[in-house]
Design goal:
This protein is an all-alpha fold and about 100 residues long. The protein has helices spanning about 1-10, 35-70, 80-85. The chain has a domain at about 40-99. The chain is built from three helices and no strands. The termini are far apart.
C-alpha cells in the first residue's frame, strides 16, 4: 500500500523539462546534378527489383522442383545468376501447369 502511495505522489509532481533552443537549420538548394541523382536512384531501384525477383524465382524453382519433378536431374543455378537475370531456370521437361 505504501509503495502505491509513494508512486502516486511521485507521479503527481512531474519535473518540468525545458527544451533547448536549436539554431534554425540551413536548407541547401538542389544541385544541378539532379539528373545524376535520379539516374543513380533508378539504377539502385532496378538492382533492388532484380534482387527481389531473383530471390523469388530462386525459391519458387527450388520448391517447385522438389514438389513436382524431383526425379528430374537438375542442378539449380546460383542465386547470383537469378539476381542478374531474374527468370525461372527450371528445365522444360518439368511440367509447369501442375501447381
Amino acid at each position: 500500500m505504501n509503495v502505491l502511495f509513494v508512486s502516486m505522489v511521485l507521479a503527481s509532481n512531474p519535473e518540468i523539462v525545458e527544451v533547448p533552443e536549436f539554431p534554425p537549420m540551413e536548407v541547401s538548394q538542389p544541385h544541378d546534378s539532379t539528373d545524376e541523382s535520379v539516374k543513380k536512384c533508378e539504377e539502385d531501384v532496378k538492382g533492388l527489383r532484380n534482387g527481389m525477383l531473383g530471390l523469388e524465382f530462386y525459391l519458387k524453382d527450388k520448391k517447385y522442383h522438389e514438389r513436382v519433378c524431383p526425379n528430374l536431374d537438375w542442378k539449380q543455378p546460383s542465386l547470383e545468376t537469378y539476381k542478374e537475370h531474374p527468370k525461372s531456370y527450371l528445365p522444360e521437361e518439368c511440367p509447369r501447369d501442375v501447381i
